[in-house]
Amino acid sequence: MRPIRRWAGPALSVAALALVIWRLGTGPFVAGLEAVDARAVLAVAGVVLVATVCSAWRWAIVARGLGVRLSFPAAVASYYRAVFLNLTLPSGIAGDVHRGVSHGREVHDVGRALRAVVWERAAGQVVQVVLTIAVLLVLPSPVRSSMPFVALAAVAIVVGLVLAGRTGRSPRWLRVRTAVMADIRDGMLRRGALPAVLLTSVVVAVAHAATFLIAARAAGVTAPISRLVPLILLALLATALPNVGGWGPREGVTAWVFAAAGLGAARGAATAVTFGVLVLAASLPGAVVLVAEWLPRRHLPRPRRHGSLFRPEGATDA
Q: Which residue in 110, 31, 106, 92 sits closest to 279, CA to CA?
């Protein structure tokens, strides 16, 4: 069963991408590639820099709460590397697993370091979902009529999870619940941590939306921002689904929401392609981090601890 689960996500992503190509042809993909220019790349590089710095800060905060040290410069470099790996390897989470394992080996606690990565990413996803629901309740979109029911369902799910957590009585379930609550309390809810986690998560979500908006403008979409933002947020939710280097569900969902909004499925697919290429270009500092890690490190000779650097030849210690 494990090999099936391992390949199910990439297979579904490839199927989704193949479906888009079958329905729309290769034209939107060519148009999306041609829409990429230097100005868009520089703009997205700046936005991705802000998002990466905020994500690294959030990760450092959560890791510190769980008792694993993580310096801010190391977090930024590792996060860039993780973004690059997520965009170039199957599954879309390989980079996050890599940064968790690498950090864990550095601090000699892989389990706790991986938990810090999981909770850091979970915090960002929760904030993004909440912001998406709030925006879709206010601004017009193809799913606006369904959003009150979605909001109620989200509240019901949260309440159900809380009640399920309190009703479990088996020793194993109690241990899991205790560990989860301790991680959430220490990693994100402790004094001073929660405001920073919320702030960084909001900034990251806005940065992702801004990146998609830049891609839409580069692809020739001229619709007002108020009309595009709900579509962009829906498309961004698809990026959390299993994918192959970011590709697959993103193109399918973007094509669907653009078509439902009357902007054209082909234009939506082209925007998703432009977004993917721009983000990949902006993640290249992560490739630099990888290369720097692979290069052999020169070991300088240790200076002699005794004597003076300017000791005359033949002199001896007193």
A: 92
Q: Please say whether the beta carbons of 90 and 10 come within 8 A.
A: yes
Range of the domain at 88: 8-291
Kindly provide the residue ranges of all beta strands, DSSP E only, lying in 122-193, ordered along the sequence: none
Determine, yes or no, domain membership for 204: yes
44 within some domain? yes
Taken in order 276, 280, 283, 286, is the CA torsion positive or negative? positive
| Residues in the chain with pLDDT values less than 70 | 1-10, 168-169, 296-318
Phi then psi dihedrals of residue 225, to 5 deg: -60, -40
How do residues 153-208 score in pLDDT, each as one tens digit? 999 998 888 777 777 667 787 788 888 888 898 889 888 899 999 999 999 999 99
> What is residue 315's predicted lDDT score, i.e. its pLDDT?
43
Other Cβ atoms closer than 10 A to 21: 15
Answer for the pair 255, 196: CB distance below 8 angstroms, yes or no.
no
Q: pTM to 2 decimals?
A: 0.86
Q: Of all helices (H) and strands (E), which one includes residue 56?
A: helix 38-65
Where does residue 91 fall: left (phi above 0), alpha (psi -120 to 50 degrees), or beta otherwise? left
As given in the structure block, the two tokens for residue 284 are 């290249």
CA-nearest of 239, 207, 184 to 54 is 207
Q: Give residue 9's pLDDT.
A: 64
The total of structural domains in the chain comes to: 1
Give the residues across from 244 on adjacent strands.
90, 247
User: Is residue 129 in some structural domain?
Assistant: yes
pLDDT at 308: 39
Bin 48: left if φ > 0, else alpha if -120 < ψ < 50, else beta. alpha
The answer to whether position 243 is within a domain reads yes
Q: In 3D, which of 81, 206, 76 has the Cα closest to residue 132? A: 206
